[in-house]
Amino acid sequence: MKHSPHLAALIEALRTLPGVGPKTAQRMAFHLLQEGRPGARALAQALAAALDSVSRCRRCRMLTEGELCVICAAAQRDAALLCAVESPADVVAIESSGSYRGRYFVLMGHLSPLDGIGPEQLGVRELEAILAEGVVRELIIATNSTVEGEATAHYLSELAGRRGVRASRIAHGVPLGGELEYVDGGTLAHALAGRQSL
Hints:
Blueprint (H helix, E strand, L loop, with lengths): L4 H10 L7 H13 L2 H17 L1 E2 L6 E2 L5 H4 L4 E8 L2 H10 L4 E5 L17 H9 L5 E5 L4 H16 L3 E4 L15 H9 L5
Parallel strand pairs: 3-4, 3-5, 5-6
Antiparallel strand pairs: 1-2
């Protein structure tokens, strides 16, 4: 069935969200227009306000409404530790653990030459400038455990080495409370390769 132009545009806009296919986008659009009009207006207003006021932190590239994000602005954070992550969601995940007190650098992606994403798109020039200041002693690389994430980690470790900064990689392996029989082979291989002495 062919939709009206505005409805078709709404469905296409909803498809830009991660994990939303054509059927889900259509279901969302119908819900917003049938029963969810107050919620749809609130969503539209919140989205417009966020687009107008949220940008990237000038230091770490995290999403913020100010020039600096709250983490970069916090004097009590350890400036000698810098954790490179792929996305703002990764910062939120690490912060929720409560175990890291350093600062971050958000790459906003990973190296993917086939998609046209190289070092320039990841803000490597800005990262190099931070490392050149001489304050950072360790670059903790927390990219995803994918082929692109591993390639990005390797690139960043070489970059840190050229600046005389120690590079480390977050551990990957069997999750706490996980049972070996349910863990995939790739995760087990990483866990075995990264084993430590007791």
